[in-house]
Amino acid sequence: MSDVKYNRVLLKLSGEALAGEKSFGISPDIIDRIALEIKAVYDLGVEIAIVLGGGNIFRGIAGTAQGMDRSTSDYMGMLATVINSLALQTCLEKLNVYTRVMSAIEMHQVCEPYIRRRAVRHLEKKRVIIFAAGTGNPYFTTDTAASLRAMEVGADIIMKATRVDGVYDSDPMLNPKAKMFKELSYLDVLQRDLKVMDSTSISMCRDNNLPIVVFNLNSPGIFKRAIFGEQVGTLVGRDK
Fold this sequence. Notes:
Blueprint lengths: L7 E6 L1 H5 L8 H15 L4 E6 L7 H6 L4 H25 L4 E5 L8 E2 L2 H9 L3 E5 L9 H12 L3 E6 L4 E2 L11 E2 L1 E3 H7 L6 H10 L3 E5 L5 H6 L6 E4 L3
Parallel strand pairs: 1-2, 1-6, 2-5, 3-4, 3-5, 6-10, 9-11
Antiparallel strand pairs: 7-8, 10-11
């Protein structure tokens, strides 16, 4: 544990990451592999909190585009994150990783309500926490939930796992000449409108000097390497 750079981290996972090559749902192979990556870091004694998106099941903005009420659509997206969180909890507990799902929307039959002091205590007892249902409020993304929860529990860093190697100046899926950044300031991200996390979450991190590292979770062992402070992906940090 003394060799790791970060002792308490928040891992942000998109819902789409759980779908793998499919456009919808949860891929058993993908979620099992993600659970193994998390266990490798858990075994180091690192305290891990996780925020999952729900875009593989339902995305609030997409529902709004189809004529649904925005608040209702966002609440549906929050429920999708609960489904993903329970699925990941099951996979982690099969690996003997003690895990708690805490939801911003109370549903006592399936998970605990989010209480900050209880969440911190779970981390101190070396339980992985999965924060579900975003912030519990419409109009806020799971990126914002990740920034908020990271600051509430005193995380050292947000680690955002994506399907690309870091932050690029344009979409690397569409532009093969896209340039990847090794380091960025919060202000760079906001001024260039880079799609790291939404502007609200970036501003929160900037105000509280909470660093973010963006990396490709499809690279085996990369989460563990990041914990030791190895240069992976893109680091977003203090304004210069």
